[in-house]
Amino acid sequence: MKITGPAALGASSSARPSRPASGFSLGSAPSASATGAAAPTASTSGVSDVSALMALQGVEGPLERRRRAVRRGGGLLDRLDELKLALLGGEADEAALRRLSRALQEERPEAGEEAGLNAVLDEIDLRASVELAKAEMRRADPRTRS
Q: Region Disordered: what ranges (predicted)?
């Protein structure tokens, strides 16, 4: 069946009488113009419902922000340990420096109103920044090149 516009909605090529797909009826069937007007509204409300649901999923509570902040701080400490082990082994591990730099550039979620945790995270960020600056100075110093 080919539908060419609103007037063709009532036309059917089959000879069977139309009956509701479900086992019940609402009394009288809506007209073609009422059905056509309701369709855009239904699809628009469906989209707004999905976007509202997505927005609600994006909202973080203070506990989740704290967890993410602690996870980021722990990751930075892990990268600093990798760098320490590479330096103690006598090798300049550029890959460890790149991983540390990437971890430091990640967005830092605030841990809420926990001043102690925020202070520790600030110190971790500072230590990582100092190590990256020291590595940059080693690269720029002509005496350290072989």
A: 1-47
Cβ atoms of 144 and 106 closer than 8 Å: no
Task: Return d(Cα 49, Cα 12) in angstroms, integer.
Answer: 34
**Crossing angle between the packed helical segments 115-140 and 94-105, to the nearest 10 degrees:** 140
The pTM of this model reads: 0.55
Indicate whether 57 pLDDT > 70.
no
Among all chains, which residue has been given the structure tokens 């993410």?
68
Which residue in 130, 138, 140, 124 sits closest to 92, CA to CA?
138
Number of Cβ within 10 Å of residue 121's Cβ equals 20
DSSP-assigned letter for residue 63: H
Strands (E), the chain: none
Spatial distance between the Cα atoms of 39 and 25, rounded to a whole number of angstroms? 19
Within 13 A of 79's CA, how many CA atoms are on the CB side?
25
pLDDT in tens, 67-84: 898 999 999 999 999 989
